[in-house]
């Protein structure tokens, strides 16, 4: 996930995937329930956590490669 957004159902999605979904539906992909609105909001905290995890994975891979 590189561009996480929050939808009205309270779940995080990759922006491009949920935009494709919402282009033809107005329901939650996870619950199937109608969404009160189809607005999407950036999830800055989740994006930061993903980048931190990716950095840790790269450091781990580099550390293992050097051995």
From TrEMBL:
Transmembrane stretches in the record are none
A molecular function (GO) term? ubiquitin-protein transferase activity
> Gene3D superfamilies per the record?
Zinc/RING finger domain, C3HC4 (zinc finger)
Q: Which domain of life is it from?
A: Eukaryota
Concerning Pfam families, the annotation shows: U-box
Domain U-box as annotated: residue spans: 1-60
An example GO BP is: protein ubiquitination
Name this polypeptide is given: U-box domain-containing protein
* Source organism: Emiliania huxleyi (strain CCMP1516)
């Amino acid at each position: 996930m590189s561009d996480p957004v929050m939808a009205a159902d309270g779940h995080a999605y990759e922006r491009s995937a949920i935009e494709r979904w919402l282009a033809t539906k107005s329901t939650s992909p996870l619950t199937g329930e109608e969404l009160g609105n189809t607005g999407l909001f950036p999830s800055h905290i989740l994006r930061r956590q993903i980048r931190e995890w990716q950095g840790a994975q790269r450091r781990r891979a580099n550390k293992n490669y050097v051995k």
